[in-house]
Amino acid sequence: MTTAFPNHVIDPLEFAQALIRCPSVTPNEGGALDLLQQRLAKLGFVCHRVPFTENGTPTVDNLYARIGTAQPNFCFAGHTDVVPVGDAGAWRHPPFAATVENGRLIGRGAVDMKSSIACFVAAAGRFLAQHPNGFNGSISLLITGDEEGPAVNGTVKVLDWLKRRNEAIDGCIVGEPTNPQALGDMMKIGRRGSLNAVLTVRGVQGHVAYPHLADNPIPRLMRMLTRLAETPLDGGNDHFQPSSLNVTDLHVGNETTNIIPAVARARFNIRFNDIHTGAGLIRWIREICDDVGGDYELQPTISGESFLTPPGRLSQAVADAVERATGRRPELSTSGGTSDARFIKDHCPVVEFGLTGKTMHQVDESTDVADLETLTAIYLDVLEHWFADGLEC
């Protein structure tokens, strides 16, 4: 049972602006986690800074904050790191100025996802202020600085750290931008898996006038890619669209017109649903390449397996809160790329709901200012209903 909390109400717009003004381009912390820790400490959260490192990757700072010691532990998860600004001169306003113009907050991270973090904190502050005598359970924030980078020294290692401390999370919202057009359109209850592969085919270099003395790897590579790309992987299912394979790069590097090259290389990506596993797809790729034949090398990397949080208590609580706040019933989707939810799903049910993602990673990234209050109200509503059975001592 938690004790009394400070009545410290946070304005999500003001806090989002403060976070955006921290230039936290991956892997630099940029002051964003420092600021977040200060605000959470004022609310009574116990904060832990947990940096991690690994050979070949930069050291990344992370923050885990929790108020309360009892279960259930409801977690808000996200990241303060942002992608580079690109051409800063192409922005209407400096990308870290957090300018409000015509009802929109402009700045790198306004959508992905510093504003959602500001709404996390504002909702938690209002919840605690409304329940000064405590509640049965805990609220936590798991915030990384590694989501937009290699994603090896962030959420996945914080979760392992929590496990070693015997701390469990019982439900989680990730604040990634999930709505295609308007707040309330969509929430994510899972994600497709992602497999990247580099396929290198080797032959024998020679003169184009004497092809019988050479071995051209390009036709073999083309046959492999054609079979891979034209073979349907599946037809999708109730929660996932069909899996897809897309070739993303072809490279030979031959600058001469009369030489048959020795090596041809391609890169491709598979976004796959829960009909498949990464290991199963790697076996399938090798079978096709073996059937075409010849000397080849496959270098696959699985950046995440597909996962699904089946519709249940958590998705119901979020969908109901969204509908009450916006009048829209969000679509339960598994579309889009990967997120840190792929790590959290191994520990507890997880859904994603955040702002409208039309401008994420773009020049003049921006969000509707009014959506910050609405999103805060949604997160607060989720907390109220999640802890409804144990509110008040």
Summarize the structure in words.
The protein has two domains: 12-191 and 306-390, Zn peptidases (Aminopeptidase); 193-304, 2-Layer Sandwich (Alpha-Beta Plaits). It is of the alpha+beta class. The longest helix is centred in the C-terminal third of the chain and has 18 residues, at 369-386. Helices cover 29% and strands 25% of the residues. It has helices spanning 12-20, 32-43, 114-130, 155-164, 217-230, 278-292, 313-326, 341-344, 369-386, and strands at 46-49, 52-54, 57-60, 62-67, 73-79, 99-101, 104-106, 138-144, 171-174, 186-188, 190-191, 193-202, 206-207, 244-251, 259-260, 263-272, 295-304, 307-308, 331-333, 350-352, 366-368. It has a six-stranded mixed sheet with strand order 1-4-8-5-9-20, with helices on one face. A four-stranded antiparallel sheet has the order 14-16-12-17.
How would you summarize what this structure contains?
With 393 residues, this protein is of the alpha+beta class. Helices cover 29% and strands 25% of the residues.
Write the layout of secondary structure elements.
Elements: H1 12-20, H2 32-43, E1 46-49, E2 52-54, E3 57-60, E4 62-67, E5 73-79, E6 99-101, E7 104-106, H3 114-130, E8 138-144, H4 155-164, E9 171-174, E10 186-188, E11 190-191, E12 193-202, E13 206-207, H5 217-230, E14 244-251, E15 259-260, E16 263-272, H6 278-292, E17 295-304, E18 307-308, H7 313-326, E19 331-333, H8 341-344, E20 350-352, E21 366-368, H9 369-386
Parallel strand pairs: 5-8, 5-9, 9-20, 10-19
Antiparallel strand pairs: 1-4, 2-3, 4-8, 6-7, 7-21, 11-18, 12-16, 12-17, 13-15, 14-16
Helix pairs in contact: 1-3, 3-9, 5-6, 7-9
